[in-house]
Amino acid sequence: MPKKFSIIVPVYNRIDEVRDLADSLLAQTAGNFELILVEDGSTQPCDKVADEARAKGLDVKYFYKDNEGRSIARNYGIERSQGQWLIFFDSDCVIPPTYFEELERLTADQPLDCYGGPDAAHESFTTTQKAISYTMTSFLTTGGIRGGKVSLEKFTPRTFNMGFRREVYDKVGGFREMFSEDIDMSTRIRQAGFSIGLYPDLPVWHKRRVSWGKFWRQVHVFGMSRITLQLLYPGSMKAVHWLPAIAVIVGIALLVLGIVVSPWWLLPLGLYLAAVVVMAFAVTHSPVIALKALPAAVIQLGGYGTGFIKAYFTKIILRRGRDVQQEIEMRRGK
User: Is the separation of the CB atoms in 77 and 36 below 8 Å?
Assistant: First the structure.
């Protein structure tokens, strides 16, 4: 008999992470799921990890395909799944042991067509990962526009912790190969008339990036993709999406004024950074994580803001760039 939940995970050179993910699924208190791993052209395949997990009793299906991108890999997995629900995790996620037991209850008591859950840092993660996790979910940074218990915009499920009924896929179709593909998918699901909501007490532990450079590149792309979404869905960009870009412009202006005119112009920056440290300490109870939250917050706002500004100037003002026509064609369904 097919399992109720099909977990689809695209993988690219993540052997250790997939092992941790598989171990966390083996520890689940409910076994009403199958795991579908789609290796997207990795040079370090995780087939042996899949074999080990299968030998321990995990219902896992492993597929290897040429590298085409994570969205195509997810669609590949969906087509080979059998569950009533399609569940999506990132390969660097670890799943709490009662996740699927709780999900079974939630889908019965609080039925939705599409759900999303929060992410958090496990106690075993490094202090850098925990600092990044804090800023990615904090109201003081762009965490305020990601959706959650306290959010500045309508909640949008993300593929590190997201699921929807098979009927949704049958009507809406699969993921598009683009940045912020999960926001695009959530928008299409909502436009098709399906219900979407947050299960706030259904978290996953998300490892995030392990270096500041990788974190910068990630959030810079996030900022650029916000413009892509505006091109796809005119009117979808709200005032809140401008906040990181405004923060970058104001921050640079205050730095210049503080150096050229008077150090007092640096006071607002100092107060903001102090608030980040104090709030991070209040949440994590770790002075090390609180201090690392400083560079994490600067990188997150700076990376997202500069990506947003760059893409806005290039694609909307100058209407240049190879992706403009592609985005218009995607909007038309080509």
Answer: yes
